[in-house]
Amino acid sequence: MNITQDLIHLVAPNAAAIANGQKISAHHDFSGLTKSEDETLIWGECTGSGKTPYRTSIDFLDSEKPVFRCTCPSRQIPCKHALGLMFDWVAGKSFSTAPIPEEIQTKRDRKAKRENQDGGAAPRPKKRNAAAQTKKLKKQLAGLDMADRMVRELMKAGLHTLAGTAVKTYENLAKELGNYYLPGPQLFIMRLVQQMQLLQANPEGEAAHFQNASTILVQLASTIKKARVYLAQKLENGDTTPDDSVLFEALGGVWKLEDLKRIGSYRRDVRLVQLSFDVSFDEVRREYIDRGYWIDVDSGEISQTLSYRPIKALKYVKEEDTTFSLATVPEAYYYPGDLNRRVRWDACSLSPLTQEGIAQILGKAQPDIATAVKAFKNQAKNTLSDKYAAMLLPYSQIGILNEQIVLQDLAGKRIVLKDLPGEDGRSTVTALSMLPGAADAGAMFGILFYHEQDRRIYMQPLSLISSTEIVRLRY
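Request: output the structure for the sequence above.
Response:
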């Protein structure tokens, strides 16, 4: 059993629960701290608001999937009492040794019996209702036809007509697409409306808002065109199952791990290190997005984890957190896509990141700026792909040229470092300028992006990797 600060932050449902767990530990609210002889189980009693103490235990028989139990009424798993119990362990408090309680041993035995009965196999995926799926595909095609007509009218009339009552018309269209199982195109239209609303509120930013709206409109038109062909082919072939096309998600489809495994989009025994973590807020979707960028220390692939936390459901959706450890994942599932594919997993084990691991990461950097830019351009050509890409670039020096901070690679090529638009108050370029020793050679992890107004490719720095450490500019 290896309980660390990183593990606590990884399993905690949110920052508030972590803070409450720390308070419980600091106030010594637990009594009867106990562990099993093999240290796969810890338990104790915690003073709370109830008449009797809460009985709390954490079972690490399966170290990758610890089981948290507590008699408190909280719906969070793990609750603050379980987190407090782990903080007590990390703090080095004394745990007496005792036999595993009969109640917990019985639960272990039942679980083992169930696994033996089905041979330890994963549960069979639910059968899909082909008729219902076919009906859904036809409904989606009808919705795309409706959206296509309105987009064509808008492109013919011009974006300048999208104001006043026209904005209301497109707001209604966005709502209507929700009835056609098209949350993807629906979101595009909502973002288009947002840009026009911002323009009305800020006429001085007309050029930027029109440029953003044009980009969204092109993406929407391309999505509609490709999706109609995609859905028509699936109906013709009688295939209603998710496949490895990015259009499945672009239309609003939600991937299940069993479907990703079915199409072979998974890997076993993956070793990942998080290079960056950030929380942003999407005004249109009204939700927080927890995003972590991870590098596979063996293959060098950079992927991302995404956790969406709608405002309406903040109490019930686990808040992700940063980690500085090496995560070993038994099964990692990858979404279809180009660079920086989304990755998910059910369980992982954490261990300290060694100097050897850092050396492996440095060895996976892109050869030079030219190679990285070429890969980014190839992705950006696809209208359905992200217009930014996370890359690891080696550099010989970082300096100031023409009042701009510039990274120079080992071949002498340069790229200007700049914050992504909308990063007010969160500038990583400013943080980099204040970092001692940042000019020393190493590798930089950051985001390549195309700036519409400047018509140039920049890089936003997120982390610096030396031979001894990873220094994050934001986490």
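The chain has a mean pLDDT of 89.
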